[in-house]
Amino acid sequence: MAPIALTIAGSDSGGGAGIQADLKAFSALGVYGASVITAVTAQNTQAVTAVHGIPLDVITAQIDAVLSDLDVGAIKIGMLATPEIIHCVAQALTGYAGPIVLDPVMIAKSGDALLAEEAVQTLREVLIPRATVLTPNLPEAAKLLKDEVEARDPARMQVQGRALCAVGADAVLMKGGHGTGSTCHDLLVTLDGITGEFTAPRLNTKNTHGTGCTLSSSIAAGLAKGLPLQQAVAEAHGYLQGAIAAADGLGVGLGHGPVHHFHRVWNA
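The structure assignment produced for this chain is given below.
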């Protein structure tokens, strides 16, 4: 039976992030993807021009429909937009015992907000304690901790990662894409400290739309296959680096273009 992963996230009409990116990553990594749409965005590589939240009863119905029929091996949670949607998703997942990858999506690559300011605390209180692994970028980690200083080195990344574990996440992948220097460092952190370090050359490209969605869904794909967390993160990290390296060949859009999810299947 094929491994199954579920994405609970917003729709990106431009196809580079959100559920579109998640389903592409699932498929590229040999996992059957199911989806629950929490919001519809009018979005391309340059801007988010409209956001429409899905009614709560429809979100609940989608989750119930999938979990009552499909043997979901892992869930990735992305854009949730409002406190009400966060509570709705948390309630609908009551009883789900599998791994959950929580990507605390706050800002689109274009700079547009995807999470209401008043929803940050709700996300912290309601869903972080449910997360098998939390995957914040450096600005998101600081915001979740109400820390005015973003981590810019591995030592501070570890401190903030452990602080987020103290909030309730089993593990935190501190993503270094917003850092500086020629090497990008991602740290997998638990309350006990660093359990994995993943490095790659920092690539000079503007085509990084959907990197956070792609990484978190790739981790969920690995967990759906039954991989241990550290291996799932390592394989997802390698897959994403290849997708970024091949991104410029796609030539999609006039702004921040998407990564190439199927770089292992066809050349752009």
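Interim note for the steering committee: The chain has one domain: 4-249. The first strand starts at residue 4 and ends at 12.
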